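# nightly structure sweep
# worker-07 picked up a monomer target from the shared queue
# config: single-sequence mode, recycle default, output format = structure tokens
# input follows
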Amino acid sequence: QMQLVESGGGLVQAGGSLSLSCAASGGTITNYEMAWFRRAPGKEREFVAAITWNSGGLYYADSVNNRFTISKNNARNTLYLRMDSLESEDTAVYYCAASSNSISGIHSLTIAYSIWGQGTQVTVSS
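# output follows
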């Protein structure tokens, strides 16, 4: 079974930038649709961004569109999330996820993804 491990979280000032990584093992990310979700204090896990197995489709939540960029390096078997112009509302635990099936039409739904990392904390100070 493929495993995912996030890294790169930390404390950042509002307006700053941060890049997260999701290292996959036990499987090849080209066989999966990949995504980032986050859980803020007192809120449910919510969709952030997704990328299809062939990078042919990129999806972003309205709240992060034009600020975050999802990408991946297949050779390194790693998913990335670049976060720019961070806001206090971006404070959350960020999770990467993988789906062995197409995410067409359901890319923003938690139930679409069967493999999850343990999360990495991102804190944005005002």
